[in-house]
Amino acid sequence: MAEYDASKIGEEKGDAAFQRSSPYGGSYEPTYSGATSFLRCQYTRDLAEMDVAVSGVPFDLATTGRPGARLGPRAIRTASSNLAWDWPQGWDFNPLDRLKVADWGDCVFDPGLPDTWIERLEAHAADILATDTAMLTLGGDHFITYPMLKAHAAKHGPLSLIHFDAHSDTWDDTPGRIDHGTMFFHAKEQGFIVPERSIQIGLRTHNPQTHGFHIIEAPEACRAAPEDIAKKVKAAVGSHPVYLTFDIDCLDPAYAPGTGTPCAGGLTTRQALDILRGLEGINLVGMDVVEVAPAYDVSEITALAGATIAYQLLSLYAARP
Length: 321
What we know:
Blueprint: H1 16-19, E1 42-43, E2 52-57, H2 72-80, H3 95-98, E3 101-106, H4 117-129, E4 134-139, H5 145-156, E5 160-164, H6 183-189, E6 199-203, E7 214-217, H7 218-223, H8 226-237, E8 242-247, H9 269-277, E9 284-290, H10 301-318
Parallel strand pairs: 1-3, 2-3, 2-4, 4-9, 5-6, 5-8, 6-7, 8-9
Helix pairs in contact: 2-10, 4-5, 5-6, 8-9, 9-10
């Protein structure tokens, strides 16, 4: 792991999000000051030379329980300032040394016109993907993954989905509804994802229909060795293009209380990180972390978990074959 070098604090003259001299590398800016872009990466919408664009989607109008995930992107960015000086534990490289990562900012929309937001988010994603820049998206409630999948499938073809969650989000639904518990049913019906090459990890709520998805329920995910879970995931998706979505409520509420639909009996943060680390080599083309709702958080531990998982996803992307 990198050694912390206090002499580097301030060499970017503060506000690294605007003052960085290079898109590569971590930031030694004090965690308590400055503009809180994700991992202190440069705020820019010029993606001509970038490998990954981080963008927030402050949307939670599809929640069925407690709202508040619209504040998730801001909370994750703020928590990420505690991580920017080092690289993710368990890896032998810093993804920020391999990838040019930009913080694009948030995809905003008019909440008074909810019928327009899906098309707006899809267009936002399509514009970024058209530059051959990958996306790391910070939610927002989990329905945001639906337009993200649509945009990614348009570029990469039908996708394998790796889905960490307490809930299947595949309950049958009528066309056109916006609900954060049914969007993968819609995505499957519309051919954005291939269920037989997709897998869900951490489920602990009942849905009588699997729709053909591979499923690793929470008891197995918690009891088995993380490397064994990772092997099952990799066997399910193979070399197919993968979109990975991580609902923070996959974690037990003891580790992630700040979410809209907490569900006891989930993974520890350590287990989740170890499973993700074991996925090195997947053909990752898109990723998101969703459902952080800071109003219900305690000492920002959920936001920190979300930021740490997002950093792990950057490492997975940097380690693609």
